């Protein structure tokens, strides 16, 4: 199925750089996806080099890169502490589009993490305190008890950001755009640069 008329398709393989194209496709996704258009599969590697993958939400993005938030003690947090590199993929099924991102990862500043944490619903803030993400949980009751404890503890005033909760920024050195075409003759274009601090991107069209 061809993409509907109103989509910003054009010849995306001729785009000069990837960030603007990302914004166009992300805007289309937000307009058309029924939920979580900002969901992306995030891949990291463990100490044995075994890849790991899970969904996270893209919560901020700018010319520096793509930011998600999580618990530093989670599996992904521990993996990123050891190997600060990641890959992410967005797949917008109804648009038949995919974007892949790869690069080194940095922790966001405390100010950025504080600002995003402050914008979250209070119950999510409490949840960040109550969840020892990816650690064994004895029972649902244990989690609810932890939520009750932190709800009481932070009954008054603002909930501060836990030290174990922050954001990570993927600083892309590679961004690939893929769009479905009939008979699996898909369009692909990949942008690469030497390092996240290098300004210029090279652009290469790829066989499907
Ligand atoms: C659509 C979707 C979005 C998610 N977003 C996040 C997120 O932004 N941050 C997060 O820590 N976990 C998120 N999760 C949960 C993760 O997929 C995962 O279960 C959790 O982070 C633990 O992963 P880990 O043990 O590999 O660290 C999301 C799950 C789904 C299905």
UniProtKB/TrEMBL annotation:
Keyword Glycoprotein: no
Chain ranges of the Pyridoxine 5'-phosphate oxidase dimerisation C-terminal domain: 165-208
Presence of the UniProt keyword S-adenosyl-L-methionine in the record: no
Cofactor: FMN
GO MF term list: pyridoxamine phosphate oxidase activity
Cofactor info, note text: Binds 1 FMN per subunit.
Residue intervals of the Pyridoxamine 5'-phosphate oxidase N-terminal domain: 33-152
Pathway linked to the protein: Cofactor metabolism; pyridoxal 5'-phosphate salvage; pyridoxal 5'-phosphate from pyridoxamine 5'-phosphate: step 1/1; Cofactor metabolism; pyridoxal 5'-phosphate salvage; pyridoxal 5'-phosphate from pyridoxine 5'-phosphate: step 1/1
InterPro entries for this protein: Pyridox_Oxase, Pyridox_Oxase_CS, Pyridox_Oxase_N, Pyridoxamine_oxidase_dimer_C, Split_barrel_FMN-bd
Source organism, top-level taxon: Bacteria
Record field: catalytic activity: pyridoxine 5'-phosphate + O2 = pyridoxal 5'-phosphate + H2O2; pyridoxamine 5'-phosphate + O2 + H2O = pyridoxal 5'-phosphate + H2O2 + NH4(+)
Positions annotated to bind substrate: 116, 120, 124, 184-186
Protein residues bound to FMN: 69-70, 76, 98, 133-134, 178, 188
Enzyme Commission number, as recorded: 1.4.3.5
Family to which this protein belongs: Belongs to the pyridoxamine 5'-phosphate oxidase family.
Assembly information from the UniProt record: Homodimer.
Record protein name field: Pyridoxine/pyridoxamine 5'-phosphate oxidase
Taxonomic lineage: Bacteria, Pseudomonadati, Pseudomonadota, Alphaproteobacteria, Hyphomicrobiales
Gene behind the chain: pdxH
């Amino acid at each position: 199925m061809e993409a509907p008329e109103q989509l910003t398709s054009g010849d995306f393989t001729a785009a000069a750089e990837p960030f603007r194209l990302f914004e166009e496709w992300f805007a289309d996704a937000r307009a058309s996806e029924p939920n979580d258009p900002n969901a992306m599969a995030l891949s990291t590697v463990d100490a044995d080099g075994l890849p790991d993958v899970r969904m996270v939400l893209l919560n901020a993005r700018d010319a520096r890169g793509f930011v998600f938030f999580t618990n530093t003690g989670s599996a992904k947090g521990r993996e990123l502490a050891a190997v600060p590199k990641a890959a992410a993929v967005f797949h917008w099924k109804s648009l038949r589009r995919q974007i892949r991102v790869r690069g080194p990862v940095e922790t966001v500043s405390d100010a950025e993490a504080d600002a995003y944490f402050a914008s979250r619903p209070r119950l999510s803030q409490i949840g960040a305190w109550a969840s020892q993400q990816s650690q064994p949980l004895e029972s649902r009751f244990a989690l609810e008890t932890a939520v009750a404890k932190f709800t009481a503890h932070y009954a008054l005033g603002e909930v501060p950001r836990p030290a174990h909760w922050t954001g990570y920024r993927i600083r892309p050195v590679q961004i690939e755009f893929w769009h479905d075409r009939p008979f699996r003759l898909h369009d692909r274009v990949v942008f690469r640069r030497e390092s996240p601090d290098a300004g210029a991107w090279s652009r290469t069209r790829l066989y499907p």
